[in-house]
Amino acid sequence: MKRTSITLLSLFAPMLIWAQNVMQITYKDGSVAEIPVERIDSITFIEKTTIPTTAATLEGRWFWGNTQAGYCELLTINADRTYTGYDLYLDYGFDSQTYGTWTQNGIMLNLWSNGYGYKRMYRWFIMGLTENALEVMTQMGNFIYYRVQPEVIRLTAGGAPLAAGSDEQFVFADGIYASIADGQLKGLRAGTTYVQRLTVSTNTIKAYQVIVE
């Protein structure tokens, strides 16, 4: 295996002269991907004779949420090459859904969304994929989605809260259907939502579906 590393200074010196801040990659099929230069630390070209395989798969339900960003997203990737995206906007309390198809080419994940009067394509770089976490680089930045666990958490709206556990912490709830108070998860109103729970000793975050009754 051959490896060649190029620092940003030498690679982007001509670009810096013209104050360019985006690296544009044009593929042989004519498609184009753009990556902000400020997000790149270095680039390594590797010649591989074999391609490593992984047991992890993209298929399944993946969840991302951030209270500071003001929204959360559930991404469902199906085996038949279709996907759905469910977004909940925390500040306003409304949601939206996206339907489309997906393909994977190496580290590229392409999502096509077709609707009445519009057609969009999202091109993501897969930075890491395990059974529990999907890290992607998009034009909006870096995101880590966590696979939704088979266990379902059930709460009662206005009922007794749920403690996270001695080695655990709830690190995200939408504040609409469920909230975190004093380290406990409390149901606010009937509906389905998703939370993230951290295992402190392993520094591992997992996502769970929550049904509030």
Report on this model:
The chain has two helices and 18 strands. With 213 residues, the chain is mainly β. The chain has an eight-stranded antiparallel barrel with strand order 5-6-7-8-9-10-11-12. Strands 13-16-15 form a three-stranded antiparallel sheet, with no helix packed on it. The N and C termini lie far apart (56 Å). Mean pLDDT is 84; it is low at 2-18.
Mean pLDDT: 84
| Gross morphology | globular
Cα-to-Cα separation, first versus last residue: 56 Å
The gyration radius over C-alpha positions equals 20 Å
Kindly state the percentage of residues in helix.
under 10%
Strand order of the largest sheet: 5-6-7-8-9-10-11-12
Estimated structural class: mainly beta
- Give, in order, the helices and strands: EHHEEEEEEEEEEEEEEEEE
Low-confidence stretches: 2-18
Largest sheet: 8 strands, antiparallel, barrel
Taken as a percent bin, the fraction of beta residues is: over 45%
The number of helices is 2
Q: How many strands?
A: 18
Précis, in short:
The protein is mainly beta.
Blueprint of the fold:
Blueprint: E1 2-7, H1 8-11, H2 13-17, E2 22-26, E3 32-36, E4 42-47, E5 60-66, E6 71-77, E7 82-89, E8 94-105, E9 108-115, E10 118-129, E11 133-138, E12 141-155, E13 162-163, E14 168-172, E15 178-181, E16 184-187, E17 191-199, E18 204-212
Parallel strand pairs: 12-18
Antiparallel strand pairs: 1-4, 2-3, 5-6, 5-12, 6-7, 7-8, 8-9, 9-10, 10-11, 11-12, 13-16, 14-17, 15-16, 17-18
